[in-house]
## 1
Amino acid sequence: MFKKILVANRGEIALRVIRACRELGIAAVAVYSDADREALHVKAADEAYRVGPPPAAQSYLDIDRVMQVAASAKCDAVHPGYGFLAENAAFARRCTAEGLTFIGPSARAIDAMGDKIRARGAARKAKMPVVPGTLEPVRDAAAVRALGKKFGYPIVVKAAAGGGGKGLKVALRAQDVDQAVALASKEASTYFKDGTLYVEKYLARPKHVEVQILADKHGRVVHLGERDCSMQRRHQKLVEETPACIAGALRKRLHAAAVRLAESIGYDSAGTIECLVEDDEFFFLEMNARIQVEHTITEMTCGVDLVKAQIRIATGEKLWFAQDEVDPRGHAIECRINAESPARDFMPCAGTLTAYREPGGPGVRVDSAAFAGLTIPQEYDSLLGKLIVWGQDREEARRRMLRALGEYTIEGVDTTVAFLQLLVQSDEFASGTYATPSVDEFVRARAGDLSALYSGNASVSGSPPGPAAEPITVEVNDKRFVVRVHGSLTAAADTRPADRRPPAFKAPKKIAHDGATVVSPMHGIVAEIRVKPGDHVADGQVVAIIEAMKMMNEVVAHRAGAVASVAAEVGQTVETGATLISLRS
């Protein structure tokens, strides 16, 4: 067994790995950027080393610096978590070259699956159906339009080195191709240092179902069931559950194909094979050669610690159980708790948490590195934590999730907690009939409700999201009430079960905006300016792209007009409300 492991990541996944190390009796070494000096993963580790300033490219992605820390701390292995360097074959090879064990699949397996175009070819060789599309890179927007004509719209433009929804854009028609290619290439170059793109046919209403694989270095592969990850916004997963609501026969074929693919490439760690399911057919989408964000729900149903399993496999240990010994029990659901404002198109919200209290009780798990007083850096993604529940069946798990969400208190920034309550209460989620477009459809249908909810004019079980007045406790005829001041006193007490309590929505206020400037909606980095002085813009036209918290955010003109001047430059850091473009009045 290893003596000391460098955890080359941050936040909740770094804390998760550190806990696994402690249970195995292994010392854990943390790394941190200047933005994470007081982070929980830093305090939880046995040792911690600074790796650089806040930008990930200068800290967590700086391979030379990470390797220097591993040498200084005398580590014998590195766990990359997910994201950052987790699927970087060059990093895996560098670890091996410097005498360190990379806790993850071999560099060869990462190469096979890391490039999505090569992965599609490998899936075909393993006789696994793939989504119709290209097996070669596309050169430019003209080539994409030609493919759109061949496959029929809509189509998906995707980064060959992508993952996690980054570098993925949908073109509904030929007119959308230029923008889809530009944004996908920009994101791919920013996050993966590789702008290579390919094209797939866009399936209208599939489920996104993935199979958890565990494989050792001796040729044995098992699956630990599947997860339904169809509840997505901007191709970012919000809610996951296991088992998926699919037919039993389809489930068996999907599991068998996933194991066959992992065996064919000699996979040797924890990994996830992602597929799209439409009717009674499934299609290979990609493979994530790492631990997955939503590994938690598989752990809850299968009773296997996947992070400890990764570590044991990396030592050369043979798998300690066979496929017929895997016996998933019950149902588990995960909700991702993000610092985002659903009422503002899920805009990331950096800021300081003024209050933070996690739910508890039977069957409830929280994986988080958040705490009251935490300042959320704008340089990283918006994930605050993961709320996971287990139930004997799906309905118990769903109701337990609603109860737990109602207990979650986060103040100081907008979060997805209240939105997730509405989503899990929805008829489509309750029935299990949802598909990948369902969240977008839900948001459009409930736009007014969300605006009211996040402006403080509505209440759901649990604490209202975002900054709000302090609660006041009063007693009337010996009955306790908790109220908040939102212009007037509004009683929040309600003894009905959370699952049956409808949110009391009010119509949202419309805010007039007739100024001559287009401003940045958030703190971030200017990734693109799409206009120049003298250009005429239409109302709603995208004029700039702001990169914030690992997302590319479009900035649109609030009215038509001619551009008088451009106040920002590409690469410049801007604050919320900063002028980007001025229009002639």
Note: The chain has 16 helices and 33 strands.
## 2
Amino acid sequence: MRLTLRTLLACLDHVLPVTEQHELDAKLAGSAAARQLVARIRRVVEQPGIPAPRLDGRGLAADANSVAEYLDNCLDPDRLETFERICLESDMHLAEVAACHQILARIAADPAATAPLDAAGRKKLLVALGQRSTETGEESRRREVFENARAVHAALDGAPADRQPSGTRGRAAAWPAWVAALVALALLVVLGTFLFEAVGRGRSRSAAGRREPEVAREPVRPPGEEHVAEAAASPPVAGPQVETTPPVAPPVATPVPAVASVPAETPPPAPPAEPPPVAAPVPAVVATAPPSQPAPGMPRVPHGDALAIAGTAADTAGVVAPAPPAPALEPPPEESLGFADADDLLIHRVSGEGKPAWQAVAAGAPLAAREDLVAPFGFQPDIQVRGVTIRLLPGTRALVSVEADGVPRLEVVFGRAIVRASRPDARIGIAAAGLVGTVTAGLADPVAVSVDLERAPGGDPAHDAARVRAAVIASNGGIVWRQAGAGGQGVLQGIAAEGLLDARTALTWESTSPGVGKTARLDPPPAWVVAPQQLDRLQRSASDAVRERLAATGSLDRSLRELSADRRAENRILAAATLALLGDFDVAVELLCDESPGRRLEQRQWANLEAGVVPLALARGANAAARLRQALEDRGPHGKAEALFAMARGFSDDELAAGAAATLVEGLDDADLVVRRYAFKCLCDIVQPAAADRLRYRPDGLPSLRREGVEWWRGQLQKGLIRRPGAA
């Protein structure tokens, strides 16, 4: 019998006949890779911090049906190897499969778990379910359950389904509890029968022609395994070995400054290709035939055959034969760095027909060796890269690659990301503007990375670079940070070349002082670091609409453009903001300027869309600012593109004193709504009026209602109060 992932799970959960159990125990004792995998399985199953796949996930790895088909030996042979590779690379999926197998094995081993309940047990279950249903059930759901359960109740009593027992009309209030209890009892019996039969069918495949199995004994383990195996997080992979990080010295300031470059609109070119690493020797791993075609004479395991971990059919009982040379099982191929982990929308840049384009990444699809990724607003996708989980928060652009030594690398261009790994030896390289280095320890707790782009009001995006703020944040546990130096020009002053960053502490960097790094205590950490961002009902609806349209069309660009004309405003806003992240500002500008009935945005919606699109476009560099300026010319009101672009970039104190303040006040009475909205936004950003004074004027109000607010702002202008607080 071959030692595969599925046979290994069967061996660990003691569902094999004694002879096969002994055979696999011997193979396990002679395979270092198998022992490491056993230790990893035990660790991930017992580790509470590992998340579970989403209940509504799609794709081979995220779909719960894939796990069920795999455990029941019904998974398509063409998808079997891919599924097992995902399990071997991802602790989350390995824990899901191993825990489900363990639960099924315990149910099959305990006849009482699937035995029918006696009268006392049924009564106790009915009472408990009735109380729960009464406390939490909704009235509409109760009526629906009542109608569905009448047939069940009638069948149990032997009465027709349409005849109501006497005396129930006077006790209508008690029916919901009984109905819910009966339905739950029926489902429980059906589920238990199904599980018992499924496991029984699996046992019968290997039990034919053999004697009854004896009591299974504990697997044979070599001495000292308990102390050594726990340190192994996954089977060895090909690539150069990395030395263990030495003890960390306390932070010491270094005199050599590092010059950081501000992220441009176009991502930096990929580094020169490195020679392929030499594969390190690993224990042999051979592939078996699909479950539907077992090798002749090879006994089948109750849960099937798949990728073999070690051992061959020629091994004899009680003798561990060395495994023959075979191709090594690696993580994704060298040209792939990982895969998308969930069905949240993830976009990557591809080259097609001689020009770059943006496409959606399917859940479970492999990623190229270097990826330019975007997480749209309303989505926070996870990706798995060499055992490290990277979550990109909404509105983030990042570059993901693998360094020459096999360590994954994350470069955040703008936005936020959260990194973590369950393996204690996991590492990741991070580049966040001027903060460039490697987290060599501490990834068991989340590590956050942020890059914020800011502009001074009135600056010219074509010549004035944006102000960049970057941070690497240790949330609940400390990390070891080793600097690499931005562009190879040395480490930052103010922080050690390698040192320990305590929990709830951040490394910070600003483009105004490119050679200096700082540490800052964050107590508590930012909310986005501690808990994932929660979407409201309308945002979730818009995100679902994008998923559905993308599944129907298969084209990201077509899906977004169709949604930009949707009747629901939240769908149009999300589509326009996503296109703007990808560098297309036409739809967003058209939506900001649209005044037609049924299409005009409310003031709050307009402010949210403008804040998510325009400041980032101006801060991304000259190319993005020029495209925004052209979109205002093409899609905005005729002849007012220059004025709108000036208000979008803001005004300096000198410009306000030179007449820009008067221009803004006059814009409150403009004929075009978008001009009035921008003028009012600029005035509020400059003056910071009280809430009561803000309510004096509404850009979308009737002319008669706007008049009083315009006169109030004119009075402020005459008093010289249209200036920033503290300005002369």
Note: Confidence is low (pLDDT under 50) at residues 159-173, 203-334.
## 3
Amino acid sequence: MRNDVGSRDLRLPALGLAAWAGALVGLHPGVLTVLPGRLGWWLGATLLGAALGWTLLRRRWTVTAWIVVAVAVAAGAGFRQQSVTEGAVARLAAERAAVAVEVRVTDDPRPARGLMGDQVRVRVRVERLHRDGRAWRVRSPVLVFADAAWERVEIGGRYLTRLRLAPSRDADLAAAAAPLAPPRIRGDPSAAWRAAGTVRAGIREAVSTGGSPERTLVPALVDGDDADLPEQVKTDFRTTGMTHLLAVSGTNLTLVVGFLVVVGRWCGVRGRWHYVLAVLGIVGFILLARTEPSVVRAAAMGTAALLGMAHNGRDRGIRALGLAVLGLMAWDPWLATTVGFALSVLATAGILLLAPGWVDAMSRWLPRWAAQAVAVPLAAQVACTPVVAAISGEVSLVAVLANLLAAPLVAPATILGLLGGLVVLVVPSVGHLAGHLACWAAAGIIWIAERCAGLSLPVITWGTGALALAALTLLCVLVVAVTGPVLARRATALPTVCLLGVVLLVPLPRPGWPPDGWVMVGCDVGQGDGLVLRAGPTAGVVVDAGPDAAAMRRCLDRLGIEQVPLLVFSHFHADHVDGLPGVLRGREVGEVLVTGHADPADAAERVLASVGAHTRVPAYGETLRVGEVLLQVVGPVPGSPVAGPNDASLVLLAEVRGVRILLTGDVEPPAQAALARSLTGLRVDVLKVPHHGSRHQDLDFLGSLRPRVALVSAGEDNDYGHPAPETLGALAAAGVVVLRTDRDGDVAVVRREGRLRAVR
């Protein structure tokens, strides 16, 4: 039996790659126009002609087919891109025109956070367009950012409305739009869409009696509906490489269709009728999970995986993968530029090309089912690692372990959730029972994700530059080369597994961190604030938690913080509170202080729900002693104008081991002026620069503090331009040492031998 990749017929996968390359060229023709004038096009045409001539003379028809497919897909993608970006809707969007339209809703309304409050995001297809007495019949995709009136629109329905168009940054959209009128129904969704909506509602109803958060995970496993899933669960799934379970993926389709085929076999379905039943299951799955491109992509990859898992179906699966890529590029060439598509193709290819050989190797000393349980997630993870690192800057070390442990629970949770959603429509009590059992399985998955994310070294940070990713790709190739021989023998496989276990479970030494005598650390949490004041050997006062729970958790872990006797949120913006789960994970948290300005309201509610009765609003001037930390609340100043959440930030004056620190939240110049009037003559050693070092500062006030060290917490390459050059220039001119988390990572202020130092 052939187990090596080189012995496989890879002509159809190569055809899929040719289509993929053609789609990329068609959507981004600039790759052919790098040279001056039309030289790039002439060169491309010459090379194409030469290749065709060579293949015709040598009768290499396979290569000819690859070239023809690439050219055909490129041409189709180019024409479709042009129709989207240069059609009537795009032209009117450039004018920001107001138009009357008839639209068909192509996706469920989804909540979105906007600058003016919560919004609803709805993807539609404009089919009729009217402006100034002119009418167009079009088929242009548009993303509508609307108010609550659009929450009731149904996928598949047709509506009349008026829109204000604007250019879109997304290549597959003709425009973005804001409604000027509520939607009026023109045509109801089809019976198939209504049935799918009924089943989705049934799934949510079936699990409604289960516990939280497991009842929110089951719909995500069945049909990708993760709207209500807590952010901490999503974070744990990202850390452990289990995010594919929360989105519609080939795994979902494989389980659902496989279950349907098994039921059909029990009911007497035989022969070719199995294929008919599978096709019906695939169509039903697409309707249930919605027909957006990511769902169709997942269905195509899942179908290839199903063929690969069939008896002697490995070669069929590989061929099906190539045809799936070709079909998807012809159907929706914009998939070629999406990370989800790349991950799906790589994972499926890894499972089909690598896993069978590894299964055969391990089957020499393991039961075959156990070998398959290890090989499948390992193959998918190795294949996807470079792409995951490119988008996240991290390499998960626990992904294979987490997916291996969760695998026995994924199928029961998914199948019982679907079964409950169907049965609850007929026999509610039985449907609720199935849903309750699904929740039990989902609770086990959440527990596994939580425990694996909490291991000593669940992920390692990896660069996203070309050199770092090339090195990681070579490392993955090396892993592929040595994995088969290592796994083939118990004597090499078991010590390797034990070594990996030691790496995951035993904390690695971190020489020099935290530095001796540290009094304050600014955590690198991205575009946000996450600060720690030393309250004791393993205790810290945390002021804000940044936007990233995983980054905040890692910073506290590196500092050895086990207790947080006081947690302070300066205000409720996401870049200060969304990392709260990272503080709570594995730590004792005492009192929580918050601003009295509960805006945004939804974020304030999430914080209160997470920390409960421990939360209070401190009084102005209140003083607290927490271990080695002495704190006084100095802002917001009573009677000062509060223009919004930023100016309502809690401002704290802290002293740790004789080092005086001013923590300013995101206060803007009006609030800074009020602080200047109330804190006349104040001098500090360390200043946490307000609002991530933005250009909106009262520089006279900041200069009057005469800090020796200024800490700027900002995200690398953020869209806000933080920190501003003029702010940094004013601090540098005053002789202040500036620490920046966007360039320096975690930064510490240290008092050692009576001297103040900054450690990067």
Note: The first strand starts at residue 98 and ends at 105.
